[in-house]
Amino acid sequence: MHKQVDSEIETRPPTLSPSDDYELSSSHGTIVQLTENFRLNPDLGEFVSTIYSRQFKPQKVQARQIGTALKRVELDIGKDFGLPTDILQAVQSFLVSLSNVMSRKPQTSLRPPTASHSVPPLSQEGSLDFTLTHYPVSLSLIRLQTWSQRSQHFGYEMHVRGEAAVAASLVASIRRCCPTEGIFVATPHRIQREAVRTAISRINLEEGSLDAAFSRLHVNDVEEGRVTVDTIERLQGSEAGFVICLFSISKSFESDLGFLLERRRLNVAISRAKTLCILITSEEVLRPSVKILANEETAKGYAFLKAFEDRAWSYELNVDLDKL
């Protein structure tokens, strides 16, 4: 028997100014994260610091339990949550592989970061040292490719449906293994927000030990253990354990690249994460034309995105839109 997940639309999260997040330390010449602000693990903090002139010192270390929690996604493989099977299984493989990276276990699904300092050193067998048994990962990237045999020139709306199905699968899987962690789905456009809300509202969950936790699933609620789906501007000043950022487009919508590759927008979305940021993007965004990069502001945004890509664990995900 299955239970339909409820979804509600509530008011926007409170908006804070950028000064609420950071303070300058003149004595050390660095940017120090406020101690009462729990956002940004070391790898995420180092990435964000690429746009500041001073070194960034995060005051947080990722708990090693997160790797163990994500491993529980394996228990749901083969279950039907009312989501496209191929997409759900791919997302489960992605999360389990991230768990293996965090636990310093072998995996073959993820491409490691190209930035050398982002790759964990090899563990020493038999060592009980915490640093050798856990590797914190805050940056991950899904390269999304949508396609259709029925139409080679499918519209942006069809692509958004595929993107939303991936986001909903991530939400369902993360909520199953980390029911007390908040989740943000950050979207540049309202059409993406509505598509994700629709996809989440259709999730069917098995009744069981975690069913009570899922009954608390409400979109647009920023309390602990809730899921918030909203535009990036409305999420500014808030934070969540997991942040899913939707920055993918189809080939037919490349005119939107200037909007997506705005550095401030990317920074606000990515830096909402307390534990893990999952950036869903596409080759059209990661490899824009020279013409697009002729704009100075767009070029700055692209450089910021490229810095993220270089530091993230990456996964390839193909979505057949004909199966949605």
Please give a structural write-up.
Keywords: ATP-binding, Helicase, Hydrolase, Nucleotide-binding. Residues 29-283 form the DNA2/NAM7 helicase-like C-terminal domain. The longest helix has 22 residues, at 156-177. A hairpin with a 4-residue loop joins strand 2 (22-25) and strand 3. Helix 5 (156-177) packs across helix 6 (190-201). Helices cover 34% and strands 19% of the residues. The strands form 3 sheets. A 6-stranded parallel sheet has the order 8-6-9-10-5-11, with helices on both faces. The protein is of the alpha/beta class. It has one domain (2-323). The chain has 12 helices and 11 strands.
Properties at a glance:
three-stranded mixed β-sheet, 34% helix, globular
Give the topology, please.
Blueprint: E1 2-4, E2 22-25, E3 30-33, H1 42-48, E4 55-57, H2 65-71, H3 85-102, H4 130-133, E5 139-147, H5 156-177, E6 183-187, H6 190-201, E7 204-206, H7 211-214, E8 227-231, H8 232-235, E9 240-247, H9 257-260, H10 263-270, E10 273-281, H11 283-286, H12 296-311, E11 313-320
Helix pairs in contact: 2-3, 3-5, 5-6, 10-12
Structural class determined from secondary elements: alpha/beta
Outline type: globular
> In percent, how helical is the residue content?
25-40%
How would a crystallographer describe the biggest sheet?
6 strands, parallel
Which strand order do you get reading across the main beta sheet? Answer: 8-6-9-10-5-11
How many strand units? 11
The total tally of domains equals 1
Mean pLDDT over the residues:
79
| Integer-rounded radius of gyration | 19 Å
Q: Estimate what percentage of residues fall within beta strands.
A: 15-25%
| First-to-last CA distance | 23 Å
Multimer state: single chain
Tell me the series of helices and strands, N- to C-terminal: EEEHEHHHEHEHEHEHEHHEHHE
Q: Number of DSSP helices? A: 12
